[in-house]
């Protein structure tokens, strides 16, 4: 395996000569440019767009999300670049800059998308890392593709990293990249952050390639996780499957020749959101007016409950619908009094488990509405769309109760966005204890979504919460988030990565 890895390294799959200009791509980054700071993620922080869409510049638009906001200042300050897939299958795009960020696109073929992205990343690792809520599939051809594509990302990074550069690799799609970088470029400072949970060794054990994944991650100087339990799970797997000797969440890593190469550390860095952006939007008169309009359009019910998720089986949407349906059946809520808005943004639609989930959720919504709707009122307003952040904040302002019922979630930023948008300190957050956000938002109404009776009780507590209690809880949660925004997350991680680690060989 190692020999194959090395053979493909050097035979770059996208050489400078092969890079072709793309219509409309702004010139800027040369294919040979080198950078002192590189972020590597499966997706680049831009999407294709057409000229008439708002925010579209030269055929690209910055994708929403705190990660890019947090890293953009760092990118400009330190001569940085971002390496990632540009989202268009089979298209080669040469490096370009957009909104002041230098971007190095990595090409994915239709076959790579099927085997590496939909296959190994999202039908093997995603369910395995989320408590096997859906059964993971193990296919050798997917694994081969995962290695090949990870090598391509590593090669692009190696070409663009200046001597001694800091490289920060993001998420489960790229777990082999840290070791590939370490072998080719021992001069680099290498960080990795896993945005999703890391499973306990008893579950991780199922993965036929478990040793290679741990080995890949241990190529980093610092491996960051959302929760300290994830960091603990990772180190337990390192001990169990590689025989690593772990002391204080550190491993002394040796190269193929047995010589020590570096110390790999694991630590929790809970990610957050762009607090400033959400707070400012929540105060804009047009956003506040839009929230009122949403309420009017729904017939001004006493209570609006809200769910906002990617349509993913980890989010507990079925559990939420079940609980709500039973509350309607029991007469605890009526459609005149309460409406559930469920935004389910389309996701990974060619993966079987996601197709099945969509059928099930839409069937259930149809059943609930068919049973409980009246001419004037609807039980569930279901929206299979993505919305711009302005509309999301209007929804947060319109909702009395936010339902985050994930069965397993690395963090859940929707919970943090809702709390941040509630500048009046009202509203209630029902939050699954299986979401990473539960570690920070301890004053949420926490519950176990598998316990449908418990979930129903918690929803009713939220619906009937007294203003003083709501305000006390919301204030405490808002303080936590306002003090820990996504800028602090990235600066904490990078400061820890830059720290000199003292060797303790005792
Ligand atoms: C999660 C993952 C991200 C991923 C996102 C959207 O948040 O941690 O790495 O980008 O989902 O999923 P997608 O498959 O569309 O990139």
Automatic annotation (TrEMBL):
InterPro entries: Glyco_trans_20 (IPR001830)
Domain of life: Bacteria
GO biological process: trehalose biosynthetic process
Region named Disordered: 1-22
Biased composition (Basic and acidic residues): 1-15
GO molecular function: alpha,alpha-trehalose-phosphate synthase (UDP-forming) activity
Pfam families: Glyco_transf_20
SUPFAM superfamilies linked to this entry: UDP-Glycosyltransferase/glycogen phosphorylase
Family: Belongs to the glycosyltransferase 20 family.
Protein name, per record: Trehalose 6-phosphate synthase
Organism: Arthrobacter oryzae
Origin organism lineage: Bacteria, Bacillati, Actinomycetota, Actinomycetes, Micrococcales
């Amino acid at each position: 395996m190692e020999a194959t890895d090395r053979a493909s390294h050097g035979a770059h799959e996208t050489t400078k000569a092969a890079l072709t200009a793309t219509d409309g791509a702004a010139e800027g980054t040369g294919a040979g440019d080198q950078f002192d700071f590189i972020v590597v993620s499966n997706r680049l922080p831009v999407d294709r767009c057409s000229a008439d869409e708002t925010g579209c510049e030269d055929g690209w638009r910055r994708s929403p999300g705190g990660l890019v906001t947090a890293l953009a200042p760092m990118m400009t300050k330190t001569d940085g670049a971002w390496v990632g897939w540009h989202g268009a299958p089979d298209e080669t795009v040469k490096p370009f800059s957009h909104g002041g960020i230098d971007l190095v696109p990595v090409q994915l073929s239709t076959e790579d998308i099927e085997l590496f992205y939909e296959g190994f990343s999202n039908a093997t690792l995603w369910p395995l890392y989320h408590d096997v809520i859906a059964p993971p599939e193990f296919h050798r051809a997917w694994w081969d593709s995962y290695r090949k594509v990870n090598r391509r990302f590593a090669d692009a990074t190696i070409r663009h990293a200046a001597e001694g550069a800091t490289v920060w690799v993001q998420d489960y799609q790229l777990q082999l990249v840290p070791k590939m970088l370490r072998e080719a470029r021992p001069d680099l400072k290498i960080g990795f952050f896993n945005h999703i949970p890391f499973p306990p060794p008893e579950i991780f054990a199922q993965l036929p390639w478990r040793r290679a994944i741990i080995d890949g991650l241990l190529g980093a100087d610092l491996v960051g996780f959302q929760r300290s339990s994830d960091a603990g799970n990772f180190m337990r797997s390192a001990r169990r499957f590689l025989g690593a000797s772990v002391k204080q969440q550190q491993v002394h890593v040796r190269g193929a020749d047995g010589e020590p190469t570096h110390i790999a550390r694991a630590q929790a860095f809970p990610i957050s959101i762009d607090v400033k952006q959400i707070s400012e939007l929540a105060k804009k008169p047009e956003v506040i007016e839009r929230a009122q309009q949403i309420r009017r359009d729904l017939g001004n019910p006493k209570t609006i409950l809200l769910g906002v998720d990617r349509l993913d089986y980890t989010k507990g949407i079925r559990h939420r619908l079940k609980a709500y349906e039973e509350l309607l059946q029991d007469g605890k809520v009526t459609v005149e009094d309460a409406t559930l808005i469920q935004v389910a943004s389309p996701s990974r639609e060619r993966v079987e488990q996601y197709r099945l989930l969509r059928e099930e959720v839409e069937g259930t919504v149809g059943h609930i509405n068919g049973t409980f709707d009246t001419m004037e009122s609807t039980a569930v307003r279901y929206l299979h769309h993505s919305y711009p952040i302005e509309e999301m904040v209007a929804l947060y302002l319109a909702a009395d109760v936010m339902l985050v019922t994930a069965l397993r979630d690395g963090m859940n930023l929707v919970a943090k966005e809702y709390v941040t948008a509630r500048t009046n300190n009202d509203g209630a957050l029902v939050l699954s204890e299986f979401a990473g956000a539960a570690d920070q938002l301890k004053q949420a109404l926490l519950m176990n979504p598998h316990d449908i009776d418990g979930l129903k009780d918690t929803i009713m507590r939220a619906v009937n919460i007294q203003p003083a209690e709501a305000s006390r809880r919301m204030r405490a949660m808002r303080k936590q988030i306002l003090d820990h925004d996504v800028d602090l997350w990235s600066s904490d991680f990078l400061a820890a990565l830059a720290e000199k680690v003292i060797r303790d060989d005792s």
